[in-house]
Amino acid sequence: MSDTRLDRIDATTRNAPRLGGFSWTFFGIELKRLFKNYSVIIFTVVFPIAMLVLVGLPLKSRSISDVSVADGGMSAAVPIMISMAVYAALVGSTMTGVTVAAERGQGWSRQLRLTPLNPAVYILIKVATGMVLAAIAVVVTLVAGALLGITAPLGNVLLAGFVAWLTSMSMTSLGLAVGYAFPAQNAIRYMGPLLPVLSFMGGLFVPLYLMPDLLQVAAKFTPLWGIADLAQSAVIGVAPDPWAIPNLVVWFVIFTGLAVMFFRRDTARV
Questions:
Q1: Cα gap 199→225, rounded to integer Å
Q2: Is 96 in contact with 172 (CB distance < 8 Å)?
Q3: Is 45 inside a domain boundary?
Q4: Do the Cβ atoms of 224 and 252 come closer than 8 Å?
Q5: How does pLDDT run across 32-80, given as a tens digit for each residue?
């Protein structure tokens, strides 16, 4: 007597899913899971605005050039506003990636490994989800800056905001790598202090020209230096450092590769 269950399945006729298993339905599910995590959203939005009020607002009347703010010079608070927008995007992107540590504990990642979903596609879906939260964080921070009276040419602000949003994708990959490398509690514990340290080294919290020469050189090899340089150059209206884009690309490739590697390792046994 034949097994009817086996008769229903003909493995020779099964085709690999298109686009590695990507679907808009799955992407929508990931977005819903993200917006249910209120702690991540609040920390992503509230902290950068608080920093903008505490650090940027007192410098609103100080110019970054010889031309006073009253005569049309750019306020020193503008680069700080963009730095906080960058940081908001980075926190949103990174914490989106780190949430996979909790998913691992629930067995969700191993369940996905039983499906035809390509690991690289899953990583990219997580990156895209982080980009959605990063976009919200950037818009809210820039709107808060405008409400506080921190203004700059609209074209510069829009370009800098776009750069802050686009470049944040590399940090989603970092969050994914950490999320797959460590258990949930340890992932958050390690990522919490790591991001502020990287932000400081990259020139988001303190302008690099105020740092010692050795730190200025070392900063160019850190993951956030390229992101900070591109966004800050855009809002000021000057050309970025020629090594900023290579820095961004190299670290994105490194973080994405680590995320895929740790994902495969974590789900090697199903």
A1: 8
A2: yes
A3: yes
A4: no
A5: 877 777 777 777 888 888 888 988 888 888 888 888 888 888 888 899 8
Residues forming beta bridges with residue 217, ordered by sequence position: none
Given a cut of 70, is residue 237 above it in pLDDT? Answer: yes
Q: Which residues pair with 63 in a beta bridge?
A: 75
Check: CB of residue 159 under 8 Å from CB of residue 78.
Answer: no
The domain in which residue 103 lies consists of 21-266
Buried b (16+ CB within 10 A) or exposed e, 162-173: ebbbbbbbbbbb
Beta strands, E only, 78-201: none
pTM: predicted TM-score of the whole model, two decimal places: 0.81
**Does the residue 181 lie in any domain?**
yes
8 A C-beta contact, residue 57 and residue 25:
no
Tokens representing residue 47 in the block:
């902290």
pLDDT at position 107 is 73
Domain count, the chain: 1
Residue 258 lies in a domain: yes
How big is the chain, counted in residues? Answer: 270
Beta strand spans in the chain (E): none
In a domain, 192, yes or no: yes
Q: How many CA atoms lie within 13 A of 190 on its CB side?
A: 16
C-alpha closest to that of 109 among 179, 9, 59: 179
Tally of CB atoms within 10 A around 195: 22
What is each CA distance from 6 to 2, 131, 270, in whole angstroms? 8, 43, 22
